[in-house]
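Support request from a user on the community tier.

User writes: "When I paste my structure tokens into the form, the page sometimes reloads and wipes my input. The last time it worked, I copied everything first. Here is what I submitted, just in case something in the input itself triggers the reload:"
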């Protein structure tokens, strides 16, 4: 197995070896070669981690801690993340192939998520209810739910974890996180900061391993009360079935087939850049990837020229290099998936305008060329199913009515981009397009203040924003009878 760095799991504040005694290799997608070893967890480890998280939730310093103190810990964690952002960016790039300059930018911004939820921690209050009964004082409070199971994918390991971790802890829960088997290292490096910030043992636990041997027993564990999942729709179906074992509350952030719509009055230079950012950023491995570009027929040729010209100059290569614009795909199976869709696109009559193969000059690693397909309509599988790679489907349209229909003719409903100058049209379309996030004259902007999430095959629940913290709480209603009168009739409810 080579002389690689070896990672154990983190349970109850301790680094523990997997009960199986086994480890598996994590591969650097830029070289296609393994670079570290990850512990292969199983249901014995799952039980251990969940019991630790449950114990900490019910009986520990954490359980007794004030919300303000929890906020202080989160703020400290944000500060430590800011100090270690560049180092964590290196691990993330090594493990999942995202551009080092994108990761540096992302990780230097991510402390904001901890600061936002640190600020909210002691503002999770209930209400006094103006109850319609005499001599009753009624109030509600929001309580933490218990042990949260967080399952994350490989495309943005730390960001997608923080979206769950920060609100879950701010609300007073404990958490067991299972990162993707492809990209566990950056989170295991980050855990040191959790210790340094001073979180008590058992508040944050990390299990590593595979979906069937760790993800499945974790999401069906009787002591798990809340599941936060980001990943593919097929795995999500297993997770939802597992949640039925004990009716855990679930949020799902799945994929998309998001439309990026360009109207005839748009600033075409900006729109072209937005389309490129939407689909080639992170090599298209983004849940919000704008994988369908709908271009008004009157500007079609003009904007296509700008897009194709810029795409043909995209620098594909080593993600650690400062001037690379597109790195590899994160896994070999994802690369093969992209290849499968591209050959399907050709069979279905799509016109390949650019790319469509692995770059000849990059023989190692999981690289693919930025690819553009032209389609006469929205019917082919490649323009309906999530490819999760650098493959853009371009489709012309004539009218506003038609493009709304086309944009909405998908089972997904995550994001949409609208490029337009007419402000009335911008709002009309934003209202009618079925998506949880709509960007007007921009794309892929994120902030802890703004919720994200979708509908249909894109999942349910929201991450980010104030709503997210409520998704990690449950409401308790307390009734107080303030009357001194004797209760006369036990069979009549007051
Ligand atoms: O993801 P999986 P995959 C989409 C994208 C991609 C497809 C498949 O289209 O091509 O999904 O990707 C864990 N119980 N997205 O198969 O398997 C798994 O170990 C519990 C979009 O690589 O869903 C990992 O930690 N957990 C998406 C996590 O689920 C299970 C990001 C995600 O992996 C499990 C990723 C089970 N039965 C893929 N099976 C987005 N929203 O951005 C697997 N897992």
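"...and here is what came back when it finally went through:"
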């Amino acid at each position: 197995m080579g002389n690689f760095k070896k990672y154990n799991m983190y349970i109850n504040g301790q680094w523990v070896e997997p009960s199986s005694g086994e480890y598996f290799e994590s591969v650097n997608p830029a070289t296609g070669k393994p670079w570290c070893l990850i512990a292969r967890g199983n249901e014995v480890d799952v039980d251990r981690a969940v019991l630790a998280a449950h114990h900490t939730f019910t009986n520990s310093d954490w359980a007794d801690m004030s919300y303000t103190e929890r906020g202080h810990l989160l703020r400290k964690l944000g500060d430590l993340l800011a100090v270690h952002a560049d180092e964590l960016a290196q691990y993330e790039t090594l493990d999942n192939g995202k551009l080092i300059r994108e990761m540096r930018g992302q990780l230097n911004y991510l402390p904001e998520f901890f600061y936002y939820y640190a600020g909210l921690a002691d503002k999770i209050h209930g209400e006094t209810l103006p109850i319609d009964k005499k001599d009753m004082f009624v109030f509600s409070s929001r309580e933490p739910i218990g042990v949260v199971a967080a399952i994350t994918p490989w495309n943005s390991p730390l960001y997608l974890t923080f979206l769950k971790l920060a609100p879950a802890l701010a609300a007073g829960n404990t958490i067991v996180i299972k990162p993707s088997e492809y990209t566990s290292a950056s989170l295991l490096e980050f855990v040191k900061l959790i210790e340094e910030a001073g979180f008590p043992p058992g508040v944050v636990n990390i299990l590593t391993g595979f979906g069937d041997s760790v993800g499945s027993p974790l999401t069906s564990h009787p002591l798990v009360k809340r599941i936060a999942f980001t990943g593919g729709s097929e795995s999500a179906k297993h997770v939802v079935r597992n949640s039925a074992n004990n009716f855990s509350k679930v949020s799902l952030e799945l994929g998309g087939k998001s439309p990026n719509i360009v109207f005839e009055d748009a600033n075409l230079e900006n729109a072209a850049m937005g389309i490129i950012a939407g689909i080639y950023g992170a090599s298209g491995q983004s849940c919000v990837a704008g994988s369908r570009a709908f271009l008004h027929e009157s500007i079609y040729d003009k904007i296509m020229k700008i897009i194709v010209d810029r795409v043909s100059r995209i620098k594909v290569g080593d993600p650690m290099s400062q001037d690379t614009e597109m790195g590899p795909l994160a896994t070999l199976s994802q690369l093969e998936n992209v290849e499968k869709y591209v050959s399907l696109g050709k069979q279905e009559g799509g016109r390949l305008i650019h790319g469509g193969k692995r770059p000849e000059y990059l023989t190692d690693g999981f690289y693919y060329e930025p690819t553009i397909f032209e389609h006469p309509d929205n019917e082919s599988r490649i323009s309906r199913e999530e490819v999760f790679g650098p493959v853009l489907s371009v489709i012309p349209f004539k009218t506003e009515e038609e493009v709304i229909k086309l944009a909405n003719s998908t089972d997904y409903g995550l994001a949409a981009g609208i490029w337009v100058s007419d402000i009335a049209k911008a709002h009309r379309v934003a209202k009618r397009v079925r998506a949880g996030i709509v960007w007007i004259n921009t794309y892929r902007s994120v902030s802890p203040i703004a919720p994200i999430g979708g509908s249909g095959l894109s999942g349910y629940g929201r991450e980010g924003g104030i709503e997210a913290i409520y998704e990690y709480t449950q409401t308790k209603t307390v009734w107080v009878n303030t009357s001194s009168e004797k209760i006369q009739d036990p069979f009549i409810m007051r």
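Agent notes: The reload is a front-end session timeout and is unrelated to the input. The chain has a mean pLDDT of 97. The pocket of TXE is lined by residues 151-153, 155, 178, 180-181, 210-212, 215-216, 219, 230-232, 235, 238-239, 253-255, 287, 337, 386, 388 (CB under 6 Å). Escalated to web team.
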